[in-house]
Design goal:
The structure holds 2 protein chains of 2 kinds. Chain A is built from 35 helices and 4 strands. By secondary structure, chain A is an all-alpha fold. Chain A has 4 domains: 124 residues, no CATH class; 255 residues, no CATH class; 104 residues, no CATH class; 170 residues, no CATH class. In chain A, a hairpin with a 7-residue loop joins strand 3 and strand 4. Chain B folds into 2 domains: 77 residues, no CATH class; 356 residues, Alkaline Phosphatase, subunit A (3-Layer(aba) Sandwich), CATH 3.40.720.10. In chain B, helix 7 runs antiparallel to helix 8 and helix 10 runs parallel beside helix 11. Classes of the chains: A mainly alpha, B alpha/beta. Chains A and B meet through helix 19, helix 20, helix 30, helix 33 and helix 34 of A and helix 5, strand 6, helix 7 and helix 8 of B.
């Protein structure tokens, strides 16, 4: 290697051997110290002094004087070891030669490399990432611009401004919209869309025969008024905020009262709470309306993350990261989570924005909010104390009963110790070596026998006594006072927040400046002021300040992102087809003017979701049929111009709900703790106490809407999971729509589906009598909302004739059919 | 078959659809990889390296002494003890002269086919995050698992069986549950299907007892008629026809999965090879034999869990390691050796990558007098078949087996190597999600070239 060096360079290197320490110091200062110096010690490594290099970082020493082949400092710099250093570049050959020779000469270093002030200012500079004017011009960061709906040729088709925007782009491409869907298809579509439930024959007939000009508007209004609307659309929201009833990880403990948040969401949508307030309360309900149980329940938003077993700074940072991601994705449609370790690679989102948002959330902590009055709380406290007292005698008696056996087992265990451990114990305390001290502590503090071992060692008489005592405890336990109702909410430690920091490379070992709360830089010219909390405040009001900026009409993303979500659920895909990514790597809107028009309309109509639903559903676009039009398919197979309504497989929840409803067995009770339908135990064999108290398929108390099924992160309900229910761990804005064989297996063979097919058959017999024709007619009208075609009728009769037991199979075939699981 | 009764849709068209439309249709990797299938043997709870494949004579010499000079000694529970030597003796085996302890006498005979990594390290010393990291690359749940990536990249050879199959231990599931074989943000097609080694292999596989094949045939014909009528309105919608096709698949799966699970078809010699005749080895032997039968039938990824539930029913030897590891090694040693031998004799080992690993290793010091605590800083995993170089050991742990001493290998490195053997550049096998091209190896990982033949 050395031989290949040019002669002058070789001369330079060798001639100034005395100068190696200075050259080394310069090389390290310019390339390494920013991350391995006073400001930051990535990997625990400090390269400022020889001693620090010899000590090394978490991976051990980096310098072996005299041997560069053993010095990690050199190996990483030479890219002979991973990770290659410095990241993203390589030192020049001469610089490596200097390092090698310096190490070869024993690595003398008489100075500290890099001044502390330099590093600090370098670090502070690294935190800044100005936004350019050009970056502000990106479409989604622009203010919402309302333009008048365009003129179109086919004026008759335009029922709402939505239609004008869509039709103009169709006409520009020479496409014609689809014909209007039949009233039967239309009403079934609206029921599935707004309620997630089938429409009944009488409701269809009523609509089909309604000659009033606003017949359709009446249907839409009626659907929007129902709590079923809240249940259906609440589920969409729960997907975004990764709602679950348990904390995941090892214990996957249930989050008590999480369901109250789910019910709050459903109720808020049902009552058409303005969307800005809906979001403000989730972010800062405790600060905005501390006395309002609803507002407190809304902050359950913060309680839905994963529950880490180990509580540490690291896991806290993970929790905050989860919140930052969810917040960025759900409310702003930006992937701010990408800016945790570096400035966003594609979007103008400085890493600083990430940590300013972290500062907003940093002080939150779990705080259950009692939903009962103080007197009740006090009574409960007293009652619990008294209750615990009642258990004491039994507990004490058991302890006394077990003690001799425990002592016996302990001494037996000690007899089994290996000689070196026994020797350690034999040594007098003051003479023990460090190792012997550890062993002694371990032996004294450990019991390695189980409760079963103790029981097995007991005499039958003592065992009987113990059982009796346990029975008594069990009996008393039945009277344990119920915990008073409470919301899983959040609070903060006080009005003065704890400091949080910029973390270089996302590492808690590399803290930078203290962060003030802030917003998305690219959206503002001037940082909005965060409110000063009143003297009586129990929190910093940072979340309130953030929520107010977020939900202000001047924030272009807030309204755009939400109207796009509403559009997506009605029309199958969003106007922006990456609904939570309005950044550079996301898709551009297919109809930018329409998106902005909708966003401004959303604000103008007081953030009313129902107004937006009405606007979209009463359009001609929504009333289009879903059939193929070959000519249109050829131009726009992806239906980006919305020349038809899509057929889409409905979600697993809605398949299950429809099955229950059509079978006549849906319990439409709303709200309350989640239910536990049957799951085959082999699918969740427990560990660490995780379990699923599943009821039998035949237990009618589980025949509730799927939004009320307990959502346990490590034990998903297979029927929902197989149809792409998200895992409730990360934000989900658009569900995958898989078509796979296990879905068929479940609908074919699962005992719950079979059972409900039987219920459906009995319903037919009950309501249509024994007449086969009537049974078939009723079955079709309940399952599909229409009469069978002649061919279908023939097929059904052929299948059923002379085989009364086949009726249930027939019903199950309807459950399995494409028409049942696709929107019309 | 179903499509013959389907009337409106020609049989050929449907078979084509199966191939083209299925998210699991076979796909070509980036380059020709030797491995076509993967069997991951997950010794859940964490296997001790210094009691199995990483000899540490220093522990005998310094028995009972405190561990110093290694930084803070972090234990997950209880009080740290002094150094505890292995109760099992190490001997050299094979032509390569690999050190293996008496814990794995059968696997020891096959070391010339096995490549060891003695310098694995992970992030967390907590089971759930460590399991997730081993399975998905991230300590947080919610990401696609190794099997999801393999099936996403390669599809599967046999559409009538699940592409990605998981066997949990009859004593319980691993901590963390379903997200360990979850598809994360990928479509449900890439999630692991749980297989049972006794009884019906898959939940909801078998029709109800009163549903005879003839009755089901009639039923499927009726369903096909209903679907055909519906599809006529949308002849160009391939998703509808693809869904029709899944019923044919499901119908075939009913018989094929049962057939694949029919261990009584195996010869007495084979059953013996896997330890099916011995009570201790029977359950894991069944899983290993099933794994071979599934791989033979084109299944892409099989994961077997040894150990379930908590503590002594898994490899989590917080106390009495002699009992704990003694039991679990006895249960698995002969079946694993049987699997390797059987794969080899059938010519399947070259195309089947076998991974053996826990979620972390264990400590060189004692815990609760006779156990070992978790240790993510250094542990041993091994790979065999599928283009792996046998008879080598990569990397070194320190003199106690506590931390990596040399050539440390991350979980990302392990995953990169697995993907490489399957024919993928791990930096280019990506799935676009939430604004990022996600990878199994996140933003790092290097193929462990020393292990590639």
């Amino acid at each position: 290697m050395l031989l290949r060096l040019s002669v002058p360079l070789l001369a330079a290197v060798s001639a100034f051997a005395d100068d190696l320490p200075r050259q080394t110091a310069e090389i390290l200062a310019a390339n390494c110290i920013a991350c391995h110096g006073s400001a930051m010690k990535m990997g625990g490594l400090d390269l400022r002094t020889r001693e620090a290099m010899l000590k090394g970082g978490t991976r051990g020493p980096v310098l072996v004087p005299g041997d560069h082949t053993k010095s990690a400092l050199y190996l990483h710099a030479a890219h002979d070891a991973q990770p290659a250093m410095p990241p993203g570049k390589k030192l020049q050959d001469w610089q490596l030669t200097v390092l090698r020779r310096w190490i070869g000469t024993g690595a003398p270093l008489d100075r500290e490399i890099g001044g502390a002030t330099d590093a600090k200012s370098a670090m502070a500079a690294m935190e800044e990432r100005p936004i350019t004017e050009q970056e502000r011009q990106f479409w989604s960061f622009q203010p919402v611009k309302r333009v008048a709906p365009p003129a179109v040729k086919n004026k008759a088709w335009v029922r709402t401004p939505v239609d004008a925007f869509l039709l103009a782009s169709m006409e520009a491409k020479g496409l014609k919209p689809s014909p209007e869907a039949s009233r039967r298809a239309l009403i079934r579509r609206a029921y599935l869309d707004l309620w997630g439930l089938p429409v009944w024959p009488n409701e269809i007939e009523e609509f089909v025969n309604d000659k009033r000009p606003d017949a359709w508007e009446r249907v839409v209004d009626r659907l929007l008024e129902s709590k079923h609307y809240g249940e259906r659309w609440g589920r969409h929201w729960l997907d975004l905020v990764r709602y679950a009833d348990s904390g995941g990880f090892e214990y996957d403990r249930d989050i008590r009262n999480a369901w109250r948040f789910r019910d709050w969401v459903i109720d808020a949508l049902h009552k058409d709470m303005p969307y800005d307030r809906f979001v403000r309360l989730q972010l800062a309900g405790d600060e905005i309306a501390p006395e309002d149980p609803g507002a407190q329940t809304a902050t359950g938003f913060y309680r839905l993350g994963l529950e880490h077993n180990v509580k540490s700074e690291l896991t806290r940072v993970e929790e905050l990261d989860d919140l930052i991601q969810i917040t960025g994705n759900s409310f702003l449609g930006v992937t701010i989570g990408c800016a945790r370790c570096h400035n966003h690679k594609f979007d103008p989102i400085p890493q600083k924005d990430y940590y300013r948002l972290q500062a907003v959330f940093y002080n939150t902590k779990d705080a259950d909010f009692p939903l009962v009055d103080e007197a009740t709380l006090a009574r409960h406290k007293e009652a619990t104390k008294a209750f615990e007292k009642r258990l004491e005698p039994q507990k004490k008696a058991i302890e006394e009963l077990e003690k001799p056996y425990r002592d016996l087992l302990t001494s037996r265990e000690r007899d089994k110790l290996p000689p070196y451990m026994k020797d350690a114990l034999a040594v007098p305390v003051e003479k023990r070596t460090e190792g012997q001290k550890l062993i002694a502590i371990q032996v004294e503090k450990t019991r390695n026998f189980s409760a079963d071992d103790v029981i097995n060692a007991m005499t039958p008489e003592d065992r009987r006594k113990r059982d009796e005592l346990l029975d008594q405890i069990k009996e008393i336990e039945k009277q344990r006072p119920e915990p008073p109702a409470a919301a899983a909410a959040v609070g903060e430690g006080g009005r003065v927040p704890e400091p949080s920091y910029f973390l270089h490379r996302g590492s808690t070992d590399s803290k930078g400046s203290v962060m003030k709360p802030g917003v998305l830089s690219v959206l503002v010219r001037e940082e909005p002021a965060f409110p000063e909390p009143p003297a009586s405040a129990k929190s910093s009001y940072r979340r309130k300040g953030y929520a107010e900026w977020l939900t202000a009409p001047s924030n272009p993303l807030f309204a755009r992102v939400m109207v796009n979500r509403i559009w997506q659920h009605h029309f199958g895909e969003g106007i922006v087809r990456t609904p939570s990514n309005f950044g550079k790597t996301g898709e551009r809107p297919t109809h930018p003017e329409l998106l902005d028009w909708l966003a401004s309309e959303f604000v103008a109509r007081g953030w009313s979701l129902k107004a937006m639903h009405r606007l979209m559903l009463t359009s001609s676009a929504y009333r289009q049929a879903s059939g193929d039009i070959a000519a249109n398919n050829a131009v726009d197979a992806e239906n980006r111009l919305v020349w038809r309504m899509p057929r889409q497989r409905i979600e697993g929840e809605i398949i299950r709900d429809q099955i229950l409803a059509v079978a006549g067995r849906l319990d439409s009770a709303a709200g309350g703790p989640g239910v536990h339908p049957f799951i085959d135990p082999s699918l969740y064999q427990g560990s660490s106490g995780r379990t699923w108290p599943g009821k039998k398929d035949s237990d009618a108390s589980t025949w509730r809407r799927s939004v009320y099924v307990h959502s346990k992160r490590t034990i998903p309900l297979p029927m929902l999971e197989v149809f792409d229910k998200p895992d409730a761990i990360t934000h989900c804005a658009r569900r995958n729509r898989s078509t796979i064989a296990p879905q068929a297996l479940i609908l074919m063979n699962n005992s719950f589906v079979r059972l409900q097919a039987g219920e459906f058959a009995r319903r037919l017999e009950r309501e249509a009598g024994r007449d086969l024709s009537k049974q078939v007619d009723l079955a079709f009208s309940l399952a599909y909302g229409r009469a069978p075609s002649p061919a279908e009728r023939t097929a059904a009769h052929r299948f059923l004739e002379g085989k009364p037991e086949a009726l249930s199979d027939f019903c199950q075939a309807l459950f399995n059919s494409n028409e049942f699981v696709y929107t019309p | 078959m179903l499509w013959k009764a389907g009337g409106g849709i020609a049989g050929l068209a449907l078979t084509d659809l199966l191939a083209a439309e299925s998210p699991l249709a076979p796909k070509k990797p980036h380059f020709a990889g030797k491995a076509k299938a993967v069997i991951s043997i997950f010794c859940y709870g964490g296997v001790s390296q210094m009691d199995s494949f990483d000899p540490k004579p220093e522990l005998y010499r310094r028995r009972g002494e405190a561990m110093t000079g290694k930084g803070e000694v972090v234990v997950s529970q209880g009080n740290p003890g002094g150094f505890m030597p292995s109760p099992w003796e190490f001997r050299k085996h094979g032509q390569c002269g690999m050190d293996v302890s008496a814990l794995f006498p059968n696997v020891a005979q096959l070391v010339d086919d096995i490549g060891f990594i003695r310098s694995m390290y992970a992030v967390s010393n907590d089971h759930a995050p460590a399991l997730f990291q081993m399975n998905t690359g991230s300590i947080l749940p919610g990401n696609p698992s190794m099997g999801s990536w393999a099936t996403y990249g390669l599809g599967t050879q046999n559409q009538s069986l699940p592409a990605y199959i998981v066997f949990t231990d009859p004593r319980g599931g691993p901590i963390g549950g379903a997200p360990n074989w979850g598809n994360g943000y990928m479509p449900a097609a890439y999630q692991g299907t749980q297989f049972r080694s006794t009884g019906d292999p898959i939940v909801d596989l078998k029709p109800a007892s009163d549903m005879t094949p003839e009755r089901q045939r009639r039923w499927l014909d009726l369903l096909a008629k209903l679907n055909t009528e519906h599809a006529q309105k949308n002849p160009e919608d391939t998703e509808l026809s693809a869904r029709i096709a899944t019923y044919e698949l499901a119908f075939r799966m009913q018989t094929e999965a049962l057939e694949a699970a029919a261990l009584d078809k195996e010869s007495a010699a084979t059953r013996k090879l896997y330890g099916l005749e011995d009570k201790t080895t029977e359950y894991f032997g069944r899983q290993c034999l099933l794994a071979r039968r599934l791989v033979e039938r084109g299944v892409r990824f099989v994961q077997l869990y040894s150990g379930g539930g908590n503590f002594q029913t898994s490899w989590d030897a917080h106390w009495d390691i002699e009992y704990n590891h003694g039991l679990h090694a006895k249960e698995t040693d002969a079946p694993i050796a049987g699997l390797l031998r059987d794969l080899k004799s059938r010519g399947l080992l070259d195309s089947t990558l076998v991974l053996w690993h826990g979620e972390f290793g264990r400590m060189p010091i004692s815990q609760r007098m006779s156990g070992r605590d978790h240790n993510p800083h250094a542990f041993t995993v091994w790979m065999a078949g599928g283009g792996v170089k046998g008879g080598v050991a990569v990397g070194q742990s320190d003199e106690f087996g506590y931390k990596v001493a040399e050539n440390g290998k991350s979980i990302n490195d392990l995953h990169a190597t697995m993907l490489h053997l399957l024919g993928f550049n791990h930096e280019k096998l990506t799935y676009f999600h939430n604004g990022r091209h996600m990878r199994l190896t996140d933003v790092s990982g290097n193929v462990i070239k020393d292990l590639v033949a």
